[in-house]
Task: structure prediction
Amino acid sequence: MSKLVSVIIPTYNRADIITEAINTVLEQTYQNFEIIVIDDGSTDNTCEVIKNIDDSRIQYIYQENSGRPSLARNTGIKISIGEYIAFLDSDDLWHREKLEKQIDILDNNNNIGLVTNWSLYKTFKNEEIQVKKSQAKTQKENVLYILTAPDKAFTGTPTLLVRKKCFETIGSFDDEMTFCEDWDLFFRISLLYEIYNIEEILTYVRMHQESISKTPDVKKFKDSYLRYLQKAFENKNLSPELLKIKDEAYSNALWSIGGWALHKSKDYQTARKSFLESIKYSYCKIFNIRFLMEFTVSFYPRLFLGIYEYSRKIYKKLLGKKC
Result:
């Protein structure tokens, strides 16, 4: 008998597009699922849109606005009854065979706790931004990368299919975190379970123009990233061998935070401070050309940053990569 999958969709004011996301679940080749839509305090007509979809497998839950998708996902986990749990954001889409391919892996491998896949990031005009691919091949590499280079392991929350028992063992999302709560969850699962990555694009993450261009809250990103690492290196299940990479993990995190501040919010002061903190954790950073370029640019007028960013785009195009 096929196992029930609980598909959790957090949403906020996405009445105009959420039907598209739900339809990619309804059109799956694997049909034994429930859909739990957690509305985080929408002020538009999301409720009416959901209730007009004629399918008894859809539950609609409204809660007061928290601004944290992790809290909405945790609500969904609590009321879910499926043996497997999947996550889909209300502006993203699935390939119609996503669940079937992932469930086949879990059904035939009891040691695997989580299945993921490649994801394509694109705009709502269908312009491709990048393809996210996991480079981890073993459980150890998943843990190593999620601590030191998360993009090498994690391809996005909408790619995940998780055994519900994993949440019973490791807990759910840390709803105190505004960012990085998905890395934190992935880390805790990968410590105790094998993770399998399907090397196919089965998830489509759509980026709104406002989400691409808006200024992010660098302080919240920094606080969440450092909270994640603190929890990770205090985790009793982390091996002594992996404890040795603590300085590397913090150095890379502070470089990433500096990059956010520099490229996304143009906060030069925070960028320089983060780059300097990164060097304190690992002096090797001064031998990294890209790090040195970003650190140097953070001392110059914005024109130099623009030139640097444009040069990198040209370089990536020459390598055949998406910018």
